[in-house]
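Example record

One chain of 568 residues, shown exactly as stored in the release files.
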Amino acid sequence: MELLAGNFVPLLFLGLLGCLLSGFPVAFALAACGLGFGLLGIELDLFHPALFQALPLRVFGILQNDTLLAIPFFTLMGALLQKSGMAEDLLETVGQVFGPLRGGLALAVIFVGALLAATTGVVAAAVISMGLISLPIMLRYGYNPALASGVITASGTLAQAIPPSLVLIVMADQLGRPVGDMYAGAMLPGLALVGLYALFIIGVALVRPAWVPALPPEARVHGEADGSSGHRSLAALLLIAAAAGFAWSRAHSRLIAAWLGRGDAAPNDEIVIFSLAVAALTALSLALIHRALGLGLLSRLSQRVTFVLIPPLVLIFLVLGTIFLGLATPTEGGALGALGALIMALAHRRLDRAQLTQALANTTQLTTFVMFILIGSTVFSFTFNAADGQAWVSHLFDRLPGGTLGFLLVVNLLVFVLGMFIDFFEIAFIVVPLLVPVAERLGIDLVWFGVILAMNLQTSFLTPPFGFALFYLRSVAARTDTIDRVSGARIPGVTTAQIYSGSLAFILLQLLMVAALIRWPALVLDQLGGAPKAGLMQLQPPEPGGEDDDPLHDLIESIRREQAGQHP
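Predicted C-alpha cells for this chain:
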C-alpha cells in the first residue's frame, strides 16, 4: 500500500498508457483511468471522497464554455465551402496565373492552400480538394510524384497554422488565453511558413527544373484572342489595388483606432485586414466598371482572378477581420463565416438538401468527438491534480539543463514524437494542461507557448506512420496506372512510399519555423499590441511561495485541512 501511495502519479500515467494501447476509445479510456485511479486514491487515503463531488461542476463548466462553440461553426463553414466549389475555382484560376512558370502549379497549390486555411480551417477538406483537382494535373504535366504529394499535403496542413484554426481554438481553451490573441499571434508565423514553402519550390525549380515543369501553351485556357496571356493586365490591376490598400493603410491607421475608440495607432493585424479589404474592393470596382462599360482594358485572366478571389477574401474579412477589430468574438466570427459559406454554396447552386444534411452530420460528429475527449481528459486531470501531479511534472523539468530553452526543446521533442502516433486533439487535451503550470512558473508567455506548440502539432499531420494528411491524400490518389482523359497518356500511380517521402522536406521546414519562433518570440508577441514580454535570455522562474489561484487547489487544501483536524 505504501508503494502504491508513494508512486501514485507514475502509476496513473502507466495506467493511462495501458488504456490507450488497449485500443479502447480515447475519451472513455481517459475517463475510466481517472475514475479508476480516483477510487484507488480514496482507498489509499490520498483523497477524501467529498473531493469528487466537484467533478460534475467541472463537466458542466465544459458544456457552458462559449469559446468551444467556435469549433462547430468553423467545422460547418469548412464543410459548406467544400460543397461550394470555391476550392476548384481557386485552384483552376491561380494555376493559370502561375502556370507559365516552372513550379507554377506547386506555387498555386501553396497559395490556394493558404487561402483555404484562412477560410475553412479544416485540413481534410483542403487536402482532399487539392488532391482530387491538382494532383492529376501536376502528374499530367510531368511533376515529380513525391514532390507533388508533399506540396499538397503540406499546403493542406496550413489550415492548422493559419487562423481560423481548430488547433488554436483548442489551444486557447487549454491555456486559458483569448482565442483572438492566439489568432493574432499565429498570423505572422503562418504567413512566414507559406513563404518558406514558396522559397523551397523556387529552389527546386532552379536546381531540379525537370521536377516542376511549366504548363505548356495549350494548357493555358484564359489567354486572349491575340495570343497574349493577359498577365500584364493582371499585374497592372494588382498593382493598382495594392497601391490603394497601402495608401489607405498609411493614411488611415489612426482613423481605425479612432473609430474603434482607441487613441493610439491600430495594430498591424487590423491594418492588414483593412488594407486587404480596400485592395479587394478596388479590384472588384475596377472589374465591374470595366464589364459595365465594355472598355476592353482588362484581360480575361484579370477578370477571372478578380471574381474568383473576391468571395474568399470577403469571407476572410467576415471571420478574421471582425475578430481582430474586436467587433465579434471568435464564436460570433465563426457564425458569420458559416453563414457566408452557406450563401456562397447557394450562390454557386452546388448545395442540395442531401449535401447540407451531410455537412451538418459531419459537423455534429466532429464536435461530439472533441467534447467527449475534453470531458474524458477533464476527469483524468481532476484525479491527476488531486494527487499533486503538477508538482511531480514540475520536478521532472527542474533538473533539465538549459533552463527555459531546455524546457522548450524537450517539450517540442515530446510533442513531435507523440504527434507521430496520436491525434492533435488528444495531445492538446492530455499533454498541454500538464505543461502549463511549468511554463507559467518559468515566466513563459502562454500565447507564445501556444503558437509554438500549434506549429509543432501541424507536423503531426505529415509525420509517418499516422499522419492524417497522408491518409487523406492516399484515399484520393490513384494507386495504379491510369489513362489521362486530356492527353491520353498513361500516368503511373502514386505509391504510399512517394506520399510519405514527399512530406519529409516540408516537415523540416515546419520544424525550422518552430525553431525560429523559439529564437525570436517577437514574431508572436509583437502582434499582440505590445513589445515582447520576455525573450529566452530574460525568462527567469518566479520566486517560490506564490499563492495558487486554482479553485481545485483551494478545495483540495480545505479537504486536507479538514482531514487533518478529524484525524490528527
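Notes: The first helix runs from residue 2 to 6.
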